[in-house]
Write a structure and sequence with these properties.
single chain, 263 residues, mainly beta, Immunoglobulin-like, 9-stranded mixed β-sheet, 4-stranded mixed β-sheet, signal, DUF4382, DUF4382 domain-containing protein
Length: 263
């Protein structure tokens, strides 16, 4: 009986040590995280955003400032959003992060934000972004050992508001997506000179882009489903709709070459 009691005690000690070791391992689990900046095109020469920091919040209580943790921003400074559209992006963060649930992220902006219109630069007023940051909801999991890639997608056309007297304000319209839970529509416009704004519509949701000078376009971060493309070209060309564009998560749907007729 004494031997059995001794063995039981030893067993409990061993199991306790294993549990403690596993708990320590779970605490130290990390997820490789990449965060990229992209943009929906706009009819401006430049939209310069001064990004100084990126932070994330892992608590469900977003009222606790202590819950915010800063990421390692690769390059702080000014980014022209219009350089990153139709499939282009730039890498902001590339680091291992503690695994777990993330509820929010935010961009902290500096003071050098501007929009350039017809060659003339205008200061963008962004008071809240310089203090509390541009917040956006994530509610996603950083799973241990599995790379997590997130795109921060500005809609520059809807984010800039003219307040009068030659003044402009940044009221950001931002969405986020990752490739595992979203799809892409790509295609080409003929003639390229039609330069249409292209709206991908599903239900009440619309995601837009503007075709490049060569006619190519790409709309990323789309939920799976059946879309309608609504093409709004410049004056001199006829509007066009295309129904039944199927989008699947993690895949690119090629809409082919879309012909736009002149008026």
């Amino acid at each position: 009986m004494k031997i059995l009691k001794s063995l039981s005690a030893i067993t409990l000690v061993i199991l306790s040590l294993i549990f403690i070791q596993c708990s320590d391992d779970n605490v130290n689990l990390t997820t490789p995280v990449k965060i990229r900046l992209t943009d929906a095109p706009a009819q401006y020469d430049k939209v310069n955003i001064d990004i100084q920091a990126i932070q994330f919040h892992s608590s469900n209580d977003d009222t606790k400032e202590s819950g915010w943790q800063e990421m390692d921003l690769l390059n702080a400074g000014i980014y022209d959003l219009l350089e990153f559209n139709n499939g282009l992006d730039t890498l902001l963060v590339d680091q291992d992060m503690p695994s777990g649930t993330v509820s929010q992220m935010r961009l902290i902006l500096g003071e050098n934000n501007s929009v350039v219109i017809d060659g003339v630069p205008y200061v963008l007023d962004t008071p809240s972004a310089q203090t509390s940051g541009l917040k956006f909801q994530i509610h996603d999991d950083f799973i241990a050992g599995i790379e997590y890639e997130l795109w921060i997608d500005f809609d520059a056309a809807r984010s800039i508001v003219e307040t009068g007297n030659g003044k402009y304000k940044l009221k950001p319209v931002i969405r986020t997506f990752n490739e595992a839970t979203s799809g892409v529509i790509s295609g080409s416009i003929n003639p390229a000179e039609a330069l249409p704004t292209i709206h991908a519509i599903i239900g009440l949701d619309t995601t837009s882009t503007i075709a490049e000078a060569n006619g190519d376009f790409m709309i990323k971060g789309l939920q799976s489903g059946i879309y309608k493309l609504d093409l709004m070209p410049i004056d001199g060309y006829t509007e066009k709709e295309i129904e039944g564009i199927e989008v699947n998560n993690g895949a690119v749907t090629d809409a082919g070459t879309i012909e736009i007729l002149a008026n």
